[in-house]
Design goal:
The chain has 385 residues and is of the alpha/beta class. It has two domains: 4-12 and 256-378, Aspartate Aminotransferase, domain 1 (Alpha-Beta Complex), CATH 3.90.1150; 16-251, Type I PLP-dependent aspartate aminotransferase-like (Major domain) (Aspartate Aminotransferase, domain 2, 3-Layer(aba) Sandwich). The protein contains twelve helices and 14 strands. It has helices at residues 16-22, 24-27, 38-58, 71-86, 100-111, 129-136, 158-167, 239-277, 304-313, 333-337, 342-345, 359-378; strands at 4-5, 65-68, 91-95, 116-119, 141-144, 171-175, 194-198, 209-213, 281-283, 294-299, 316-317, 323-325, 328-330, 348-352. It is globular and about 75 Å long. Bound molecules: pyridoxal-5'-phosphate (PLP). Pyridoxal-5'-phosphate binds at residues 70-72, 75, 99, 101, 146, 150, 175, 177-178, 198, 200, 209.
Amino acid sequence: MNNVYLDNNATTQVAPEVLEAMMPFFTDWWGNPSSMHVFGGQVRKHVDQARQKVAALIGADPSEIIFTSCGTESDNMATRGAVDAAGERVNIITTRVEHLAVLEPCRMLKERGYRVMELDVDGGGNLNLDVLRQALSLGQAVVSIMWANNETGVIFPIPKIAETVKAAGGVMHTDAVQAVGKLAIDVCRMPVDMLALSGHKLHAPKGVGALYIRKGTRVRSLMLGGHQESGRRGGTENVPYIVGLGRACELAARNMHDEMTRVAALRDRLQQGILATCPDVRINGDPANRLPNTLNISFLYIEGESILYHLSDCGIAASSGSACTSGSLEPSHVIRAMGVPFMAAHGSIRFSLSRYNTEADIDYVLARIPEIIRKLRAISPFAPV
Ligand code: PLP
């Protein structure tokens, strides 16, 4: 049986080049980068180089990069840290389709009395900028809007959104965890104040991330207890992982354009193959405005989870947005926010590719899917006879 991994928006395989770069920091160079002696100095130099590589991938200055433990921490630091620094009267604006790493801190702030606005998206997952302008007119705001959606791949027009936010005097954070390494990003060309990224989405290990904070942006630290990261994030640096993140960003900067062109062609081949062989399917998320690696597709009349089990039996890894709530499978908040009809919402599957996928992978999946769908529909009480 083949093994085909198409769940790269959940996590990616660590690149061999990344692992190779990390290894000496477990064995030979284990000093604390804050130490003044030679053991510390050697290591500090590599942390600084990693910072330069992360900064280069997104067009930032190295002094604007803070290393964190993950995308979730970066999003928490940006939202809670900016709101804390702004004071009690600030509003918070986000969207209904954000990752929980943004939604939950915002909801916690709501419980503390802040006005939090979660903006709607349309059926394609796109945002109406007039709705954003209206929300901004209600007062000073910290805004957190994702660059690309993890479930559908839909891309928000962040340069335009950031201009709108800054014109209204707001603070602009973007969760770019799914965008970095897949899309060209240059923070010099747009007025975003903060941007979150995560190592394990771009072939570095789990447990390391970064937050870009533009010079002059006021953000209160979440992690107190150390002077690391220029006093903005306490905690001894996770040196091997930081070095790995730097190497992953370097590889992305070098190869992203070619790799993502190839990945987009594979994704399109998968999509066309499914559309040609399976009736009653629906693409979720604006197909003209998606990450190159993501396909979110609904198979009507059947549960996404059942499809996943059958795919898994064939060695194929994908994911569904459903979550088991009180014993029943509920479509994800993203699919619900887009108003995907009931029958389609329950049968949604996300395929997400990476540089390591091949044509043979896609052909293998296309050879298995029609039979799985046919079998499941044959026993579905909802499928038309
Ligand atoms: N934001 C988005 C859009 C994500 O997709 C994820 C992870 O899936 C996160 C934030 C959280 O990142 P991490 O897993 O590094 O905490």
